[in-house]
Amino acid sequence: MTKVQKLKTCDWTLAIRLPIVLASSIPLEATSSGGIFPVILHIIVALPFMCLILWHIYLHFQWKKWLTKFSKLKVLTRILWWLYILTFISGVATFIHWLIENEHSPLGGVHGKIGFIMIAFAIGHTIKRIKFFKRKK
Q1: Taking the alpha carbons of 122, 99, 37, 29 in that order, is the dihedral positive or negative?
Q2: pLDDT tens for residues 44-63?
Q3: How many of the other CB atoms lie within 10 Å of CB of 36?
């Protein structure tokens, strides 16, 4: 499989999973994480999504000199990266808190808001590159 084929597979998988992640997060925001099932479902759906984002970044930059390449990106793409980092870190912290207290925390609320902003940026990122999805082999 070529790099472009891998990227297309990764991007299509991200595009399919993004609305599922969004759908799993809305009940958490609406009910302040009411219940174990919605939280577990969100984790099951969101964790592979976050891993796919890492694979997407790897396919673009590899691991060599990625900081150099990253610094040359457009501002909105860099903002998307920082939103990803904040979403991931706040998600891990929220999960740890949830395991200990088994209740919604203010950090969970912050994680949700950052996550929604990240999803909005990801949708914009995808729309701007829609030609890649339409392009034939």
Answers
A1: negative
A2: 999 999 999 999 988 988 87
A3: 10
Of 2, 60, 47, the closest CA to residue 20 belongs to 47
Under a CB-based contact definition with an 8 Å cutoff, are residues 33 and 104 in contact? yes
Give residue 98's pLDDT: 87
Measure Cα distances from 25 to 16, 55, 109, 128, 133 in Å.
Answer: 15, 22, 11, 24, 26
DSSP 47-115: HHHHHHHHHHHHHHH-STTHHHHHHTS-HHHHHHHHHHHHHHHHHHHHHHHHHHH-S--HHHHHHHHHH
Q: Phi and psi of 101, rounded to 5°?
A: -95, -20
75 pLDDT above the threshold of 80 = yes
* Alpha carbon 19 to its chain's center: 11
Q: pTM of the full predicted structure? A: 0.84
Centroid of chain to Cα 109: 16
